[in-house]
Amino acid sequence: xxxxxxxxxxxxxxxxxxxxxxxxxxxxxxxxxxxxxxxxxxxxxxxxxxxxxxxxxxxxxxxxxxxxxxxxxxxxxxxxxxxxxxxxxxxxxxxxxxxxxxxxxxxxxxxxxxxxxxxxxxxxxxxxxxxxxxxxxxxxxxxxxxxxxxxxxxxxxxxxxxxxxxxxxxxxxxxxxxxxxxxxxxxxxxxxxxxxxxxxxxxxxxxxxxxxxxxxxxxxxxxxxxxxxxxxxxxxxxxxxxxxxxxxxx
Length: 250
Ligand SMILES: Nc1ncnc2c1ncn2[C@@H]1O[C@H](COP(=O)(O)OP(=O)(O)OP(=O)(O)O)[C@@H](O)[C@H]1O
Known about the structure:
It holds the Pfam family ABC_tran. By secondary structure, the protein is α/β, with parallel strands linked by helices.
């Protein structure tokens, strides 16, 4: 099996509290893999361990077969790991095209030269335009990011992560705070991303998870409860017990 991202017996303690408990996760190359679990299950902590924002207490993170446990965040990005955040991190006063061009520039090592006219960096602009086109965002290219609907802003954050040309994209609640009317469209755009980008997604909205994911891992109390296809997860009594009272449907 070809895995894009794996953890081996990963653990994280905060003082005497175990937030990540011996997690061995396998994310297949090309998968749309969702990480679910109740509040406080340790999903964000696990993502932070994967990106290198947090150092594990024990265990390993393996990115495309390479042990990256000792590498910093920047080095993991260079090796193809990108993420989005739960909170909005856009520069409100830049246009969509300026924002994405800046991200491409950063990857190309040209620095974040957002004070220069975007026309100054032909290659980066061309690439940014192609990226916006693939996400059906060209019509808003010259609008300020702050003027856009929140669902579109979240999509632009994904565009910024894609500008890093990742092999693995970690999406931390991309639909958080997005009205239901917009979240469907947002997920359609995420579902249409090319399969050469593996996606690991944290999402609370079970309806979106079951529409989107082809693999699901369930975290409870910092440990992996189970994993499998959406059908297997939806019919697992252990999972139903955890989500008692919440709708789980395949
Ligand atoms: N820096 C920290 N110091 C101490 N405890 C922490 C820290 N970060 C997280 N925790 C604790 O670890 C547990 C897991 O938190 P985490 O944010 O990873 O869960 P989550 O599954 O992402 O939750 P949610 O769905 O609510 O975002 C929680 O009990 C949290 O209080």
